[in-house]
Amino acid sequence: MAGIPSNIALASLDPVIVKGNISPIVASSPELRDGTRPTNNPPGAPDFTLSAGGTTITATITDGKGADSYQIRLEGEASTDGQTLSGLNPGTTYSVQVRGVNQYGTGTWSSSVSQETESGSPVESFTPLLTRDFAGTTIGQATAVPDGWSKGDYVDTPTKSGNRALRLRRAVTETGSCPYGSGAQQYGGRFNLPEEVPVGNIIWMRFYVYFPPGFSFGYLYSSSDDSELDACGIGGGADGNNNTKFMVLAPSAGTARTYVNLPAIRRAVSHPSPFLRIDTEAANGENLDFSYEPKFAQWCAFQVAMKVASDNTGWIRLWVDDEFIGETTGHPTVSGSGNTIAEWGIGDYWNGYPWTDGVGDRGPFYLDEVIIATDMPGYGAPTGVDSEGRVYIDPNTTVGGLS
To answer: pTM for this one?
Structure first.
């Protein structure tokens, strides 16, 4: 036989026969240091416990089943990234589900676990400067009484409390080619306070906002789009900004307003590095950004407090629900010692034509439970205190509870 050395006997090439049961050899992944084996599958449903702090429910993961991050939801509702649900009703039991996410995909939802939020705070003892819960309004009414909102109407769902909320839009027509108008785009509005807040006093403004899952502050034009603006017959260059006016407090004299701004982005749904900005025009346009991951498909309490000052004793503080986001200090908040805070609002206007990719719920959002307070005589500061001792309007406080 060719290839077999002559000094090897053929008998030595006979097959070896092994009797008995033979187990097949199965290839397996090497063990990791913790004794587990890697998997190329999405994570399993995680094990977790729930806890409540105020109107926030937090999931603590005890076994992530291979997840790198998590999503949480009220059973049957839209999900949100992370492990917390905020802006819930006090003293209410919720069914909560959690699922994991890793590089191979999104896992299955866990079984529901029930958790009750903490009972609401005692009825606040202060007299508010202004409240709005939109009770008694007419569904579909285009001009929102008593203020007169731009691009706003009333709806019966979603609502934070009661049976009405205000729906606001960035634009009546959200198409995408030539804009429907020119100049700054009005939405929401700015309105007179019942009484102006003078230098030396503090004003708090809190309202609940609901952003649908697909909401976007995308805008249409930037500096690269001048030719498109010219083609639409609108000169003056691009007007897209990376932020848009959201909460506003305005003085009685001049136009140096204070804004809390949300991020905006050119022709996209979401900003890659979301933030909240305190924009203090009375302090020579000083502004400060705070990292903030927006929450969708749930009501969130946005709150700003301002020390009204024409010198460097002024400050501005910002919360979302019961979380303190940040503050600016050591600057004026109005121009001139005789100035006051005379107006409040949401939106006002923004320098950007609205963009949409045609998907629903990109433009409208919802407003409810507006409370404005001041420490002026006859009113009194709110009695809520955050986790670090700062006075604020407790997120559990309702318009009805102050009535």
So the answer is: 0.71
